[in-house]
Specification:
Length: about 120
Amino acid sequence: QVQLVESGGGLVQAGGSLRLSCAASGRTLSALSMGWFRQAPGKEREFVAAISRSGRTTYYADSVKGRFTISRDNAKNTVDLQMNNLKPEDTAVYYCAADLLDYTGSHDTGYDYWGQGTQVTVSS
């Protein structure tokens, strides 16, 4: 069983930055591909970014490309999401997800494990 715990959310003004972190336990991080998703009030959960087990491959939603960066530190068992130039439309609960089969796609059904989420609020 894999446990995921997100941290780093908060309130920030538009144009600001936040760094989210996801700590994994129960499995060595190098065995997991990782993804970040978000869900805004009244909307469906959407893909944000993903990174392969090795870290050599990353994927981003078009809406965050060039502003967000996903990275992983297998030695620390953490995956981070650096978010720059935040916009009010980035406001959502952000979830960390993990998969044992190195899935890095945008479908949330492809991920086996999920964290509880962390709130990100961007004020205009």
